[in-house]
């Protein structure tokens, strides 16, 4: 367990942005013998093969093919992006003839207060001019570089009574005491390139605090970006370690969930659909066989869930709340904001029961709508039975989130058992689950 926690925390540290999370994922996949495919080239696939393909270098789909002919795809989806602040335009703004601050906008729905008074840095990607065109380069400053200072309580007596925090006026990170200081010049220098060779960039502010496992029983794990790197990491472990596959095991790690998934590389794109079509074509399945395989497939959409809050239990439905360290959460919603229904929940529950993995059911407080997830967005393109799951955590979208330390193992075991289950749908809504 200690080793698994450390692996997750290393993965999170290596993943300040979705680009880095994709790169860290690719690193784990390569180490496990997965071969890279490119969307821009024809694919030749072999039974028993392990492959991955990236899109925008910020989304990854990894898959393993069984040695035998197959009847379904077994898919797990999670997301690699997290709410944060993104640098705008020229980067720096000046104040009072002295300070240089960074001009940023919010990416996704961050809890602003959680970004104040802690060590921040900058990471993202640079697009560099080359002899023949342009090329991407990953960038991570990797040092304490910024702070977003709170206004002291003496000037802000109502601070503990709640005060709106505006991105443009309250959340600009302090960068330098030189008003002309140019962060882009520093980034170029740190990256070892000429400033003029950076034609464009996507740079984000991230929390540098390393994650930790804590509590009298070491029952908690806290870190930045647990939503959803905890599920992404679990999906990677499962697709790498699952044995005796009866069907292709597919792990989708998408970018842009926090901004609605509607990008070329998001869950609401044709990325997954295209990959599934190309796998079947490469494996010699005609159009009719492809449709049958697709119809028999199953998606597990994994994104963290809200544990009952210790100070605000009233925000949970007391009868249907979920708790840290009590297993994988299956999320339900009457208006289908989550994709789980009786059929998909029963299939997933049966898989977990066989594997000895605990599960618990989550329903939102009926008067407080929750978030939505990847499942129904992927479902617009690949409309297959899907279950929404996650791990119970606190402070979702804070720059420092807390989850149950024991649950990580449950998620890895549950996803691995799912891949190993060789599912297929015999008739509408009836499923065979062969261990
Ligand atoms: Co999430």
Automatic annotation (TrEMBL):
**Sorted alphabetically, which Pfam families does this protein's record hold?**
Peptidase_M18
This protein's cofactor list reads:
Zn(2+)
Q: What domain of life does the UniProt record list for this protein's source? A: Bacteria
* Residue ranges the record marks as coiled coil: none
Question: What GO terms in the biological process aspect are recorded for it?
Answer: proteolysis
**What GO cellular-component annotations does this UniProt entry give?**
cytoplasm
- What CDD domains does this protein's entry cite? M18_DAP
Group of enzyme by EC: hydrolase
**A molecular function GO annotation:** aminopeptidase activity
Keywords noted in UniProt: Aminopeptidase, Hydrolase, Metal-binding, Metalloprotease, Protease, Zinc
User: Which EC numbers characterise this protein's activity in its record?
Assistant: 3.4.11.-
Q: Which family does it belong to?
A: Belongs to the peptidase M18 family.
Q: What is this protein called?
A: M18 family aminopeptidase
Which organism encodes this protein?
Answer: Candidatus Faecivivens stercoravium
């Amino acid at each position: 367990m200690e080793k698994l926690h450390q692996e997750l925390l290393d993965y999170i540290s290596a993943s300040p942005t979705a680009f880095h999370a994709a790169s860290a994922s690719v690193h784990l996949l390569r180490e496990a013998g997965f071969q890279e495919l490119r969307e821009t080239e024809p694919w030749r696939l072999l039974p028993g093969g392990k492959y991955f393909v990236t899109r925008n270098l910020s989304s990854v789909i990894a898959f393993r093919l069984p040695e035998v002919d197959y009847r379904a795809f077994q898919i797990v989806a999670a997301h690699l992006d997290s709410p944060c602040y993104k640098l705008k335009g020229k980067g720096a703004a000046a104040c009072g003839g002295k300070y240089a601050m960074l001009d940023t906008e919010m990416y996704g729905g961050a809890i602003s207060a959680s970004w104040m008074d802690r060590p921040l840095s900058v990471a993202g990607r640079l697009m560099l001019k080359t002899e023949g065109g342009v090329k991407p380069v990953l960038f991570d400053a990797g040092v304490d570089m910024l702070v977003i200072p709170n206004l002291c309580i003496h000037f802000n007596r109502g601070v503990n009574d709640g005060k709106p925090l505006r991105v443009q006026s309250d959340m600009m990170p302090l960068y330098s005491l030189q008003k002309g200081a140019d962060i882009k010049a520093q980034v170029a220098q740190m990256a070892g390139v000429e400033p003029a060779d950076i034609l464009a960039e996507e740079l984000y502010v991230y929390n540098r605090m390393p994650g930790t496992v804590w509590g009298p029983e070491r029952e908690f794990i806290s870190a930045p970006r647990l939503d959803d790197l905890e599920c992404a990491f679990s999906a990677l472990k499962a697709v790498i370690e699952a044995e005796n596959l009866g069907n292709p095991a597919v792990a989708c790690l998408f970018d842009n969930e926090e901004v609605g998934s509607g990008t070329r590389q998001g869950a609401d794109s044709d990325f997954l659909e295209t990959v599934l079509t190309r796998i079947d074509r490469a494996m010699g399945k005609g159009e009719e066989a492809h449709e049958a395989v697709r119809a028999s497939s199953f998606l597990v959409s994994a994104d963290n869930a809200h544990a009952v809050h210790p100070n605000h239990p009233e925000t949970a439905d007391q009868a249907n709340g979920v708790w840290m360290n009590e297993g994988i959460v299956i999320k339900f919603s009457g208006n289908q904001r989550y994709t789980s229904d009786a059929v998909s929940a029963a299939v997933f529950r049966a898989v977990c029961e066989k594997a000895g993995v605990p599960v618990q059911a989550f329903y939102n407080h009926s008067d407080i709508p929750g978030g939505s997830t990847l499942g129904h967005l992927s479902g617009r393109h690949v409309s297959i039975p899907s279950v929404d799951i996650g791990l119970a955590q606190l402070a979702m979208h804070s720059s420092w989130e807390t989850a149950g330390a024991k649950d990580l193992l449950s998620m890895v075991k549950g996803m691995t058992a799912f891949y190993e289950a060789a599912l297929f749908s015999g008739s509408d809504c009836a499923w065979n689950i062969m261990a």
